[in-house]
2-(1,2-epoxy-1,2-dihydrophenyl)acetyl-CoA isomerase PaaG
Amino acid sequence: MSDTVLSSLEAGVLRLTLNRPEKLNSFNEEMHLALRAGFERAHADAAVRAVLLTGAGRGFCAGQDLGDRDPRKGGPAPDLGATIDRFYNPLAGLIRSLEKPVICAVNGVAAGAGANLALLCDITLAARSARFIQAFSRIGLVPDTGGTWSLPHLLGEARAKALALTAEPLDAETAAAWGLIWRAVEDAALMEEATALATRLAAGPTRGLGLTKRAIQAAATNSLDDQLVLERDLQREAGRSADYAEGVTAFLEKRSPRFEGK
Ligand code: T3D
């Protein structure tokens, strides 16, 4: 993996740190490929039981590197649909389809696709000093990386439209109060809190957590009847896991469970 994304695995937590701090961790192709490789590893490697995504330096991610889109360099207008097909949409798919918890620690400004990347993760914490900016309208673009889905889904249409049309920064505390993210925490405590959460989830019943993620995501398009059927099917699957047997045994033996992610 290139050094544009730092990667380490500890106690089942794959930590992925966006690492272009001088550009506020905006995406160039190299960082896209490195982040994709990180999430592909999370899918394939059973030793990975949770992912923690964060950014190096004072920003989380400022979206697309606009230096790579400079019209003054000449040439034909870029086909942004093609780059979204090639990079942003597959990244969104990798995060949503990963049946392991993805924790996001937003350490600073999250703008454009960087903001929407954070919103696609399962549990997003942000430093109090962090801001979320739907920067797209400042440069004539449309929110991508799932923003036009996440924003109305999480906030409702009124707030979604206002954020997307005005590109006004939203502070972390308001984002938490509005339900856009899980929690705003003191800057100095962010990584400790996010790491503790990821470590706790990585020690959990991975299969059951993954199926829970699948069920909650499916609710966006399912009717209640569909969802009840899905819950039955997933419960059947969870009930066959070794971690379920361990959870019940531990309860009956009045001890803490030792889940192995199986
Ligand atoms: O193109 C496609 O493939 C389609 C997909 C598009 C997805 C998108 O994400 S479009 C949206 C792109 N992002 C933006 O429009 C955000 C641009 N950045 C900003 O508006 C501001 O930097 C922030 C509001 C995020 C932070 O402001 P501030 O004042 O805290 O920092 P700054 O001074 O603006 O930035 C610090 C440095 O990072 C600076 O470099 P310098 O002057 O010190 O050498 C700045 O140019 C650089 N930087 C920040 N964001 C980007 C960037 N460089 C390239 N691309 C960036 N997106």
User: Anything to note?
Assistant: The longest helix spans residues 80-97.
